[in-house]
Write a structure and sequence with these properties.
This protein is α/β, with parallel strands linked by helices.
């Protein structure tokens, strides 16, 4: 998830572009750049790191005569966050510059084709390939004699017909210095329009101080902006489309949160899209198999050691059940701060999987270095591209969840669970333990989850709100689960603790009678995960033990499960362990609604940091 912007109008473009990028920095902040035409030359300025680095470079330049330009703040997916890979990228002739948010899945195929046609590429990015493709098609349009005013739209239409994946693009062409072009497919793009100037951006905050008249672009649409006009086209046919602006009343803060009260809530509601992003580029063309090029060169681990902290540890613990069940890989899951000081033994053929959203967590990084010294191969599962853990792992798989702003991790865990599911399927098939039927059924279910979850989330939130009002007076909470729901119980307790400051304990339901049952009383409610799996009868009897001690119970369950408890919360049914993609958001929403109801600073809870880079 990157931030892109385009501007054309009567004012100096570059300062407006930088300011817009500053309001989009929550979308990505590992490098940035801008392109504009001035004195008949296409200027491209990029910088690694936060926006201030780009600002410093531009301060040394005179950009005052440019009246149109594009800009980008990056969240790397393809190519580490260095200046070379920062946007804008230019075409072979250096006359087209573009910025991109999204992932082009077939970029390698297009790159090979263009290379064979004599193109030379400077970066590993998918975006540079699109710039070259548009430039090449534009040249053929000119040669064909396409009318000059239609050339660029024709070129975009034909070139993008070849691109597979997600993209929001802003493009500037040296031949049309005051014109900005845009294109949208499965990645947000919106116009801010007015009489004297027009904006294009991946999100409204970029231009909100200047206009509240907004045109949301739909998938498959192109746009051409000049200082006092804008036209929308259908990308497939290059035909014009009538569109009407809407008026937006939000303030900047609200806009950055997309109208949500907190980043945490926004990130919970982003999970349907996150599942889609995680699957992007990881399924075979017929969608029957998982493709994980990052693991192709590595043997299937004899034994897997998963090491992580906090929410990432819970994701690893959940994955253990799949690795054992689907891939028959003996798996242990370790808390990094403990593992780093133990005399751990690694066998021949063992591999270590370190999981970290930020990729900078000190304890996890120390474990990575420790096991590498012991000669183990390390797989990194990270969200931040180019982070220390990503760089130091032997191979790294990125979760593509986009930047996670709220300290309490939500969508990052969802993305970790998707990739961990794909890894278990991948290894299960490599070991010929999984039938094609089973793999395809699992992938079909995974692909259907975004739509189902999108539909279910609003109602799930309403239920969470009602339960939060009923139970937020509790002084403590017990979260119970069995099997792959045990890690979820731990996660539910962690989420509630870290943002509402209510004491909460996650426990294996079967372990309860060995101690914690002593805590049960009417003021110490239990949140139980009682999903429709083989262990449901066991959970049912554990809940009877709680009821026998007058404990109040919220049971997260599904249709067809017979439960008589204080509060029954039914969530949709996916398929086996994939029910987690409904259970996890339910736990997140409950914690969120309790904390919000208690007036807590949900996005920046006390005593916590988004990335724990110290021991
Ligand atoms: C989770 O909500 C917390 N922010 C925290 O437990 C976090 O999961 C832990 O610090 C690990 O972070 P990482 O995934 O970035 O390594």
């Amino acid at each position: 998830m990157c931030g892109i912007i385009g501007y054309t109008g009567g004012r100096p473009a570059v300062p407006l572009i930088i300011e817009g990028l500053r309001r989009l920095e929550y979308r990505g902040y590992d490098s940035a750049g801008t392109a504009y035409v001035q004195d008949g030359e296409l200027q491209v300025v990029r910088a690694e790191g936060k926006l201030i680095e780009l600002d410093t470079k531009l301060a040394a330049l005179d950009t005052s005569r440019a009246r149109a330009g594009i800009g980008h703040t990056r969240w790397a997916t393809h190519g580490v966050p260095v200046e070379r890979n920062a946007h804008p990228h230019i075409d072979q002739d250096g006359t087209i510059a573009l910025v991109h948010n999204g992932i082009i899945e077939n970029y390698q195929e297009l790159k090979d084709e263009l290379t064979a046609a004599g193109h030379t590429f400077r970066t590993e990015t998918d975006t540079e390939v699109i710039a070259h493709l548009i430039g090449a098609v534009l040249n053929s349009c000119i040669v064909e004699g396409v009318p000059e005013e239609d050339c660029m739209i024709q070129a975009l239409s034909r070139a993008l017909a070849r691109a597979e994946g997600a993209y929001a693009l802003a493009v500037i062409n040296l031949a049309e210095p005051d014109v900005i072009y845009g294109a949208r497919h499965s990645s947000p793009l919106v116009m801010g329009v007015s009489d004297e100037e027009n904006f294009l951006a991946s999100d409204i905050p970029a231009f909100l101080p200047y206009t509240r008249n907004v045109v949301y672009l739909n998938d498959g649409e192109l746009v051409r902006l000049t200082k006092n006009s804008w036209t929308v086209y259908d990308c497939a046919t290059a035909k014009k489309i009538e569109r009407t602006p809407q008026r937006i009343e939000w303030d900047i803060q609200a806009a950055q949160k997309g109208g949500y009260k907190h980043f945490m809530l926004k990130e919970i509601f982003e999970q349907p899209m996150v599942v889609t992003n995680c699957l992007t580029g990881r399924l075979s063309p017929d969608h029957k198999h998982v493709t994980l090029p990052e693991l192709e060169e590595m043997p299937v681990p004899e034994r897997l050691h998963i090491i992580a902290c906090g929410t990432s540890f819970h994701a690893g613990l959940w994955a253990m059940y799949l690795m054992e069940n689907w891939a028959k890989i003996p798996t242990s899951v370790e808390i990094a701060s403990e593992y780093r000081y133990r005399d751990t033994i690694l066998g021949e053929g063992d591999q270590v999987l370190v999981i970290s959203q930020s990729g900078e967590t000190a304890d996890t990084l120390a474990c990575l270095r420790k096991v590498k010294e012991q000669g183990a191969k390390v797989i990194g599962l990270c969200n931040v591209v180019g982070s220390s853990i990503a760089r130091e792992s032997d191979t790294v798989i990125y979760t593509q969840a986009g930047p996670e702003i709220s300290v309490a991790s939500t969508k990052a865990m969802c993305s970790q669970l998707v990739v961990l599911t794909l890894m278990a399927l991948f290894w299960g098939r490599r070991k010929n333990l999984l039938t094609e039927m089973a793999e395809t059924e699992c992938l079909d279910t995974l692909k259907r989850i975004p739509e189902h979850l999108e539909t279910a989330l609003p109602e799930m939130r309403e239920t969470a709100r009602a339960l939060a009002r009923q139970y937020s007076g509790a002084r403590s909470f017990l979260f119970l689960g069995r099997g792959s729901c045990y890690p979820l119980a731990l996660e539910g307790a962690l989420k509630l603790k870290e943002i509402s400051y209510i004491h909460a304990e996650g426990y294996a339901a079967g372990e309860m009678k060995h101690g914690p049952i002593a805590l049960i009383d009417p003021d110490f409610p239990t949140f139980a995960l009682a999903l429709a799996d083989d262990l449901f009868p066991k959970v049912q009897s554990n809940l009877q033990e709680v009821q026998a001690r007058n404990g109040k119970i919220i049971a997260l369950t599904q249709d067809g499960m017979d439960l008589t408890v204080d509060s029954v919360w039914k969530i949709p049914h996916a398929w086996g362990p994939l029910d987690v993609f409904f259970a996890l958001p339910a736990l997140q929403l409950f914690a969120y609604e309790v904390a919000d109801y208690l007036g807590k600073d949900v996005d920046q809870p006390r005593n916590l940091a988004k990335s724990v880079t110290v021991e």
